[in-house]
Amino acid sequence: MKMEVPALGVRLIFKEGILTAVLSGEIDHHSAREIREEIDETASRVKPKKLILDFSAVEFMDSSGVGLIMGRCKLMRLWGGTVEIANLPQKIERIVSLAGLNQLCTIRKGNRHEAG
């Protein structure tokens, strides 16, 4: 049986100047590096005005995920863009809040960003 889950835990959609990274699975120190590289490679090519990190399919995140978010916020700020975090599961929203990431980027609740 063939699974249609992205190998890196991220699916990227670029539309109208917005790059959406639909994250999935677990974000730990192993996967965070690969996800970061995938996002950064695409973002450096398309230079989006906004990066949306969609956490709707993320089951687990440790401090590596906090670093992933912080790094993308710094990168987007260098390019004059913004970061929006969307569809945070309650457990992960707590980690994000405790880390103070709401000071660096916008957090959207119940806001779906669909491709197409």
Give a verbal description of the structure.
Helices cover 37% and strands 31% of the residues. With 116 residues, it is of the alpha/beta class. α1 packs parallel to α2. The protein has 3 helices and 5 strands. It has a 5-stranded mixed sheet.
Number of domains: 1
The largest sheet has its strands arranged as 1-2-3-4-5
Structural class: alpha/beta
What is the CA-based Rg, rounded?
A: 13 Å
CATH topology (fold) name: Transcription Regulator spoIIAA
In percent, how helical is the residue content? 25-40%
SSE order and pairing:
Elements: E1 10-15, E2 18-27, H1 29-46, E3 50-61, H2 63-78, E4 82-86, H3 90-98, E5 106-108
Parallel strand pairs: 2-3, 3-4, 4-5
Antiparallel strand pairs: 1-2
Which terms would index this structure?
about 30% strand, five-stranded mixed β-sheet, about 120 residues, Transcription Regulator spoIIAA, alpha/beta
Q: What can be said about this structure in brief?
A:
By secondary structure, this protein is α/β, with parallel strands linked by helices.
